[in-house]
Amino acid sequence: MSRVFRGAVTVAGLIVLWQVIVLVSGAPPYLLPGPIETFTALVTRSGLIAGHALVTLSEILGGLVLGTLLGAGSAVVIAMFRPARRWLLPILVTSQAIPVFAIAPLLVLWLGYGMASKIGMATLIIYFPVASSFLDGLRRTETRWIDLAHTMTGGPRARPFAVLRHVRLPAALPAFASGLRVAAAVAPIGAVVGEWVGSGAGLGYLMLRANARVQTDLMFAALLALAALAVALYFLVDFALRKAIPWQPDTLPDLDP
Amino acid sequence: MTEPEPGGNAGGATTVVVEKLSLTLGDLPLFDGLSTVFPAGQTTCLLGPSGVGKSTLLRAMAGLIAPTNGRIVGGDGRGLAGRVAYMDQSDLLLPWLSARDNVGLGARLRGEPTDATAAHRLLALVGLRGHETKRPAALSGGMRQRVALARTLMEDRAVVLMDEPFSAVDALTRFRLQDLASTVLRGRTVVLVTHDPQEALRLGHQLFVLSGSPAQIEKSGVPDLPPPRQPTFGDFPARYQDLMDQLAVGDAGAP
Asked: Out of 1.10.3720.10, 3.40.50.300, 1.10.357.10, 2.40.50.140, which CATH number does the structure's domain A33-242 have?
């Protein structure tokens, strides 16, 4: 049975379940709209939803790029320089003790109501998984590969950056990919939380506004669009990573989504 | 017509001199004032019980461990850095590189242009023509070890250090790889760590048996013929018995 077929069955099953819950509970549409109301809202307000979705998507992608660059950069610096290991690593770890959501109002205060504060939020939330998994990969390089490289360069202190480029970095790519997958999954959270705290556009903003006006069907439609966006982004990133790291063996092939 | 060295120019074989080497690993004094000479252009096999320090001695020669005292130098008195090639019991091929690129890894690391022609020639020499662009995952264990051998030859170093290079492959492949290695490494100073007395007797111009703590080196006799030798030929069986006896004495305390 193909993956697409299984996916379609799952989605259809969930929609049926949703409709059954609506019928059994007898909840009014302003509390729990059914699939039909939601899809109707999705179609009739598609222009509105698409416009806001584009804003959220831009924020997610911006955060993904920035967070990945900063996270990967930090990991390399920490891996390569001993003082950076001693000073930056504790900061990196404790930075995660601060709840990112608590900083959201500050980000809006400092970066404004527009996209910058949302990109900042997504960047913050992505930074740690990318940095920590890439760093993990960089420090767990097979020691005998490193030994071999050192006999080739003429000693442990010779050409550390060549060893980084040709051995450590490629060896750490599978770990980096794990971090990037997590990042792709959490990036939408960052963007939407940013929008909730204060914004004039984006799916998070649209959901808040629809909620306030008891347009629950529109709120559900926006939520659906956001979920579709997040899932598509995850699978796209996962697909690209698999293509980019073909030598990484998958010992649990049935986990393929 | 004179036959060129199969593995290319050995870059002038050199003696390897171990001078008053002392080395402590953790709390364990592996060597204390050990001195010995590995003759130029010959294969010396290191045998001895597990944990006696064979691999540690090899790693010290490769410059991967700094000795506590003493030094390991070439016949000219200079250090060995940049003059050794190292081959491990696992192939240590990088899984993201093709066979050819693995062979050329040393040049990449040193920032030199990679010589694709030489890489192809050496892969052909070890019997892997047509497999140049395959990744290690697409090759069998024996083929991967051949790539590792080609990579070692590509380094074109005067001294070749091998740590149980053929222990992870099946018996027949091991036998063929021994013949191959013996041929292509001719003329280089080879130090080969092995657990296999037969391998040592097939390949070694001389055998060093390590025993004790701190370890001492005792030489053992080799069969008359030049390597690679056939195990049933001439005085090979007699030498094999001698070597087994010698190893048993060195291993007396072990269970």
From this structure: 1.10.3720.10
Average pLDDT of the residues in B7-12: 47
Domain holding B150, by residue range, is 94-156
For residue B185, being part of any structural domain is answered with yes
User: In chain B, what residues touch A151 (CB-CB under 8 Å)?
Assistant: 62-64, 84-86, 161
B197 near B49, Cβ under 8 Å? no
Chain B neighbors of A176, CB-CB under 8 A:
none
DSSP 3-state of B43: strand
Pairwise CB contact (< 8 Å): A159 & B96: no
Res A4: pLDDT: 84
Q: Among partner residues B62, B109, B137, which is closest to A247 by beta-carbon distance?
A: B137
Which DSSP helix (H) or strand (E) runs through B108? helix B105-110
Tens of pLDDT, residues A172-204: 999 999 999 999 999 999 899 999 988 889 999
- Report chain A residues whose CB lies below 8 A from the CB of B106: 152
Mutate to test the interface with B, among A151, A153, A163, A248 (most CBs of B within 10 A): A151
Q: Which amino acid is at B79?
A: G
CB-based contact, A167 to chain B, within 8 Å: yes
Q: Which residue of B has its CA nearest to A165?
A: B109
B-chain CB neighbours of A148 within 8 Å are 86, 88, 92
Q: Do B85 and A151 touch (CB under 8 A)?
A: yes
CB atoms within 10 A of CB A135: 25
What one-letter code names the amino acid at B166?
F
